[in-house]
Structure formats: C-alpha cells, structure tokens
Amino acid sequence: MSGITGTWPLIRLALRRDRVILPIWIVVLSVIPGSTVSAYEQLYPTAAARASLNAGTGSNPSVAVLYGPAFDLSTPGGWSAWRYGSFLALFIGLFAIFTVTRHTRAEEDSGRLELLGSAVVGRYAALTAGVVVAGASSLLIGVLIAAGMVGSGLPVAGAFTLGLAIAGTGLVFTAIAGVTAQLTEYSRSANGVATTVLGAAFLLRALGDSTPSASWVSWLSPLAWPQQAKPFVADKWWVFLLAIGVAVAVATVAYRLVPLRDIGAGLWPSRPGPATAPKSLSSPLGLAWRLQRGSLVGWTVAVVAMGAMFGAIADGIGGLVGDSEQVKQIMERMGGTQGLVDAYLSAIIGLFGMLGAVYAVQAALRMRSEEVATHAESVLATAVGRVQWAGSHLAFAVLGPVVLLAASGLASGLAHGLRAGDLSHQLTHTLGASMAQLPAVWVIAGIAALLHGAWPRLAVAGSWTVVAVAVLLALYGPVIGLTQAVLDVSPFVHVPKLQPGTEFVATPLFWLTGVAVVAVAAGLTTFRRRDIG
C-alpha cells in the first residue's frame, strides 16, 4: 500500500460533503470581475474622466492600501483587475484555508480520519485529498474568472493573466493550510495560524503598494501577485509559475511533516494545564472565557491596528475618483454629503462590521467544536443546563463584536481625528457609525446559533456560507447591478450611514436586532430538544 492509497475515495467524500458550499464559493468568486466590466463605461464615460482617474489614483497611497497599485485605469480590463484583484485574492485565500483544514485537521478532530486510517488508506491520502479539492477549485475559479472577462469583451491574454494569478494565490494558501494542519492539534488553531499568515500577507501588500521606496515588499505577499502580474497592461503570465513554485515548495514541507506526528496530534504540542483548576472555571461562563479569550484578544489587536492604519490615510482618499462627477456622486451617496472622506470612513467601518460578523460566527461555532470533541457532553453531564452552557458561548458571539467594533471605531477615529485636527468630533462620529453595525452582526450570529441548534451537521458550512453571501452581496451587489430585493438579503445593506448631512433612521436597527433575538431564541430552543452530538 502506497502513502496515497485511498485518495480518490476521500476526494469523492470531500466533494460529497461540500456539494453545497463549494459551488457557492466557486460561482460567487468567478462571476464578480466579468459582471462589473460594464460599470466602468458608466462611471468613466469620457477620456478626460479616465485620464483624471489614472492621474489621481496612481500616486495615491490611501487607495493603494485598499486596492493595490493602479498601473493603467484607462481600460475596462485594467480597472476591473485593479478594483477586484486584491480582494478576490484575499477571498480565495480564505476559501483555500477553510477547505483544506475542513478535510484534514477537522477530520482528525472528529475522529473520522483515525477510523478511515484503520482501513486501506495511506498516510498521505487525507492531505492529498484536501489539497486536490482546494487546489482544483482554485484553478477552476481562475479559469471561470478569465472566461467571464473574455465573454465581456476583454482581451484574452489579460483575462487569463488575472484569472491564473488569482488561482495561483489560492494554490499558495492551499499549501500553507496543509502545513498549519500538521503543526496544530485542533482545526480552529490551524485556521487561526493560516489566517494570521493571510493577514500578514495583506499587511505586506499594503505596505509595499503604498510605499514607492519599498515596492519590492509587495512581491513577498501572494495577495499582491494578481496586481503585480499587470493584467491588461503587461500581462506577466509567469507570475502564475511563481505561485506554482511557491505552492509546491510549501506543500513539500507539509508532506515532510506528516510522518513526524501521530494521527490526532500536532507537531506543536498542547501546553499542559495546571494541576488544579482556578475558581474562574467553576462556571460555564468562566470556561467559555478561557476558551474564547485568546481569539478575542487577537481579533482586537488586529482591528485596532487596521483601524489606525485606515484612519491615518483617510485624508488622501480624494484621489480615488479624480474629476469623475459620476463616481463622486456614487461615493457621496454611499457615505454622506460631506465629501469623499466621510464616504471612505463609512466604507471602512462597513468592512469592520463584516469582520465582526466573521468573529461572531467563529465564537458561536465554538459550541459545535466542543460538541464534536465530546467536551460538551462531559460538561452537560454535571448540573450545568444546556441553555446555560450554550448561552455562555453565545455571550461572546454577541458581546465580542461590541468590543471589536468599539476598538476599531475608536482607533480609526483617533488616527483620523489627530490628522484632521478634529479629534472629539471624529471619535464620536466613527464610534457611533461602528456601533450601528452591531445589529447586522448579531443577525449573522443568530443564524449561526439557529443552525447549531436545529441543523448541527450544517452549522459550520451553513454559517460560513451565510457570512460569505452577506459580505459579497454588500460589497459587490450594487456594482454588478443586482436588484434591491436580492441586496436586501444581506443585513449589512440595511445599516444606516451615520454621516453628517444624512438622515439617521433607527428603524432598521430595531428590526435587525429583533431578527437576531428571534434567531438566538430559536437556536437555544432547538438545542434543548435535540440529542448531543
């Protein structure tokens, strides 16, 4: 029996289990670039508007932090690649990480891989299956992106340069997730380490793209490669070969690590706890705090750093649109009537709201991981009630985003206020706008709680699918011309913009909160009535 014996059945099993979430990821990520090409003609209808956009954006570090360098925005292809390349690379990285971890380390956590390993299954089969599913899906996404852009009338060479560069980013993070699955003992740790690498890659890209004297730093980040390939400008298709080389090298490390550990264990051993438990662990809430605190602290540090960075560069956002009156009107409608800086801050705060939703789902799904690992059964065998146990974890899904949004709002408001000389106003302004995101975040957390209670087998895949759909609809739905009925599916679309000159309507916040309360209550009720596990 070879080390990869049984790989094909495991691939079929992975595709069977991901038959819903996998097509959603592929379709959503594939259709965005091609469907937005027509928007360029509407936003920049004249040669003067396009020239002004090129001049204003090319040297603007604030814009480069968000979207990357603007090499040539005078064509629809160049604009689409600049506008969506970095974000698509970020999303495909997340997709690859979650997919590989789900079919490797998560399978070990549940004990299924040990059971399969007792049959005719090679030692490397599970890792190979996860890598093949994530890698092949990344390649398919890249090809479909290219096909969509070609179908929109863009040059073939530029379309495939962009599509393959994005696919290459997915391949790199597929390999990185393969390594983290060997290093850590739990799937949440593997995802955490891999997403930390993804965050570091984002910061490297932002630093290199916004600092002309250190532009070489961008090449250290796989997230920058779709931009550095210069689609529709120079068409550096060899960047895809660079990604393949890096992916193969990192994947080789992952395969070398596999035989160095036991099934269910990681190369980084778990730190043994103290001989006696502290008094804080005598309650379900204390136990939940012990399990959730590391994640909450890490997220808080990350959003404070991002908030300070985005707030500090807010004043330079005006170069994004040049002299295009159409885009100025759109940006002002998005964020208020007091200028593009307010619109920019509103957009950034919206992104922090989406990050808060990601954290909320992660905190809520800790219940499922504890249940799968049979830890919940041990706790519930004592005098602890189900609602009390579940509520202790949901407290972090509800209150954790409060901490994150308050921290991000204060950090961005402080950084922007100090530069603008209007500290007191900007602090209250950004903090209020951040807090307005909470009801939308709570809706996502409530849905995760409901899925865990009513349909536990769908809790993980379903919750992350809800997050992905809500975020992508809010970010790209208006650009690709989706109807308002479709956009309304995302709770983030209903959050009012707290900007000067705009009327504040609190009604959506009340009914969003009501939906969240009903979802959480339904989740707790159904959890009480079903079997554990």
Automatic annotation (TrEMBL):
Listed transmembrane segments: 20-40, 81-100, 121-150, 156-178, 190-208, 237-258, 296-321, 341-361, 394-415, 435-454, 466-487, 507-527
Source organism (scientific name): Actinokineospora diospyrosa
Keywords: Membrane, Transmembrane, Transmembrane helix
Protein name, UniProt field: ABC-2 type transport system permease protein
